[in-house]
Amino acid sequence: MQEFILEDTVTAVAEESVPAPGAHPQPYAYRHHELIEPDWRRFPGWRDVTAAEWESAQWQRAHCVKNVRQLRQVMGDLLSEDFYADLERDQRERATMSMLVPPQMLNTMDVSSTAAFHADPVRRYMLPVFSDRRTDWPSHPVASRDSLHEAEMWAAEGLTHRYPTKVLAELLPTCPQYCGHCTRMDLVGNSTPQIDKHKFTLKQPDRVQAMLDYLRRTPQVRDVVVSGGDVANMPWARLEAFVDQLLDIDNIRDIRLATKALMGLPQHWLQDDVRAGVERLAAKARARGAQLAVHTHVNAAQSMTPLVAKAARAMLDAGVRDVRNQGVLLRGVNTTVEQLLDLCFALQDNGVLPYYFYLCDMIPFSEHWRLSLGEAQRLQHGIMGYLPGFATPRIVCDVPYVGKRWVHQVAEYDTERGISYWTKNYRTALESDDPDALNRRYEYYDPIHTLPEEGRSWWREHAAEVPGRAADLAAASRDASEALLAE
To answer: For 75, phi and psi rounded to 5 degrees?
Structure first.
């Protein structure tokens, strides 16, 4: 068996510091961990897979687990029948994302027993089961399939212009892997029994052209997040052509390629043609004083393997400004100080900058993952002082109709009812004629099960009323959006 260990990332595990007599240990003890690619041959279905096959992006894509039958083929007798029944029920009754797990990701999960697999952090968000979900409040009363209302802020189909100087370009609606908590579950991936996915109406070349036309005539935009879906699913020649044209627009100074596949399918980013293409784009960016970066999405320290570290290094060697991580806080995955710091150090020690951790958005059936604002504030406090300042991630709440706000920027917080109130300092295109946009307070909601009994009782009595207010605001926003696109 060939072990995949990057020489430069391997050091001896540091001895835990021993406090002096009478002293107290630090709340968190840093240790640099050795990176080892788990042995995929422990899976009965991959017993004969060679190292060359494992490192092939084509093999990885062809052997993704897309349904329970394929999971059984890979797992053999490693899991109990009860687990498969739990998974099948979730797919029928709760899942907002279809199943798609690359071998690379499945290989990082603990399959030593059904209980270990059920408790595994990566399993919890990539292969959710029915028993994971809340039965009291599986969805928040204000949950919505486009919880950030991005489609209402489209300046062109798939181009969200929410912030004054930044846009989000959703080039495609697919990924190499589907996370159960995906914030774009209304558009991304295949339909599920619970969610009939929206579809782009324009063909991709027409959508891309409309995006470029808008950016050429909108000089206040300087920053483009190129996303989807996941840009790793776009044929490289098309992606390079789009980014190359972005770099020809004088006002575009920052471009970020958003790809969870740097972790989920690092084999893609290690392909020679992809690395060469990134090098060409990075060189052009530097020549005209622009920045090119890669943003990925790692939620658990165990996901950082030698192949992932190698892919991150390949991007840096190709000339990108940074490889940054935008994770999501998910209960049972990364919501203790130790879990979060272990993840941040695993990233930072291997070339990936911890950047943001988001509160999980208010999409349907996500309450078992979501944290309260107060819990997030305590996590932010708990991780301060351990990491370098530039690598200390900001924990943010993505407030509907507002955008990212540090969790301590809340204007008012009703902890009994779990309602936080937020303000903003800019207008989206929807509010260009709204004189009160900067004075209004916008609401965000804690999971109801985290509230004290008084708060839970209030929601049982008033749950039907609150979504009505939210729906009125959304309707007004949609009307403004449609008027804008009609101009």
So the answer is: -80, -25
Query: CB of 266 within 8 A of CB of 308?
Result: yes
**For 55-59, 229-233, 430-434, 441-445, which range has the lowest pLDDT when averaged over its residues?**
430-434
| Tokens matching residue 230 | 């996941």
pLDDT tens string 84-120: 999 999 999 999 999 999 999 999 999 999 999 999 9
Q: In DSSP terms, which residues pair with 327 in a beta bridge?
A: 357
3-class DSSP state for residue 307?
Answer: helix
> What are the residues whose beta carbons fall under 8 Å from the beta carbon of 230, sequence distance 6 or more?
174, 175, 176, 177, 258, 259, 260, 261
Quote the radius of gyration of the chain (alpha carbons, Å): 23
pLDDT classification of 18: cutoffs 50, 70, 90 = low
Say whether the peptide bond before residue 180 is cis (omega within 30 degrees of 0): no
Count, residues in the chain: 487
Residue pLDDT, tens place only, 31-89: 998 899 999 999 999 999 999 999 999 999 999 999 999 999 999 999 999 999 999 99
Question: Could you check whether the bond before residue 229 is cis, i.e. omega within 30 degrees of 0?
Answer: yes
Tell me the pLDDT band of 466, cut-offs 50, 70 and 90: confident
> String of b and e for 277-295 (b: at least 16 CB within 10 Å)?
bbbebbebbeeeebebbbb
| Tokens standing for residue 360 | 């999980």
Residue 294, strand partner residues: 257, 323
Amino acid at 38: P
Residue in the structure block whose two tokens are 């991709």: 204
- Per the CB < 8 A criterion, the answer to whether 105 and 264 are in contact is yes
Half-sphere exposure of 172 (CA within 13 A, CB side): 17
pTM of the model: 0.91
CA dihedral 30, 31, 37, 43 (to 10 degrees): -80
* Token reading at 458: 């209030």
Alpha-carbon distance of 3 to 373, in angstroms, equals: 42
